[in-house]
Amino acid sequence: MWHPSRALHAKRDMEHVKPRNSYKLNLVLNKDAMVGSKYDCLLFDLDDTLYSMSSGINLACRKNIEEYMLHQLHIEETEVPRMCLQLYKEHRTTMAGLKALGYDFDNDEFHEFVHGRLPYEALKPDPVLRNLLLSMPQRKIIFTNSDEAHVAQVLSRLGLEDCFEGVICFETLNPPPQSGQTFSDDETMDEPSSRILCKPSLQAVEAAIQIADVDPARTIFFDDSVRNIASGKTARLHTVIVGSSVLVPGADYALSSIHNIREALPEIWEGEPVEQLDQVLQSPAVETTVLA
What we know:
Layout (H helix, E strand, L loop, with lengths): L20 H13 L7 E4 L12 H15 L8 H12 L2 H7 L6 H9 L11 H9 L3 E5 L4 H11 L7 E3 L1 H4 L11 H4 L13 H11 L6 E5 L2 H9 L3 E5 L10 E3 L5 H4 L9 H8 L11
Parallel strand pairs: 1-2, 1-4, 2-3, 4-5, 5-6
């Protein structure tokens, strides 16, 4: 069972937290397995990347955000849809945009309202993807803007909770202030959205690279967002746009479905024993319909 304690946490100054002994052991084993491979680590976005947008989770999440804006922040109902989309476009996430406008709310309460009522039952175990992930010799890390509780729910529903070394999520990049922490007058005058660090901010991508302690030249980044892919490429990561059959700016590869990863990037398995590759071959690629 995936547990939040396995998430990779870091302070705002991006100080790298020393891993436990078991974590160190996993790194040694992975490095041994990666002899002959050109990649050391695979960074995966979560939502609409490890599962299809057609699941309805994305739409339900947007609806919950709009209801939060209406009922908790008391924003005019006629303004909510337009405002929600505009803030997402201008501030990377609607949550960051609301903070930028000066709305004061608790981050955990927001996530509980938005994610706590999602139809997770729409997500089913994905043995094909699980088999693919477990056959990959590289380190595998989730890199998402979502909170820990949501990540745990999604991975559990998909049956992938033991397929990843760790998680870089909202709490990783936005740890709560330490007890007694105060801000100077200059800091309070800063743009409020700077309080929320998230993709597609280049700073967020670079922070994830530092937290995961990876070489971007030997790391592949999988994401369904065009903006996130562009930032990943700027950070010198190898990039894969998921949910698209055509390349977008900054993408090195395009996958209509995450299940087609073996066909698009066979080099991930370079140096692996033939019998392990045979196990992957037994699971055919699955074509999925992705809504734009």
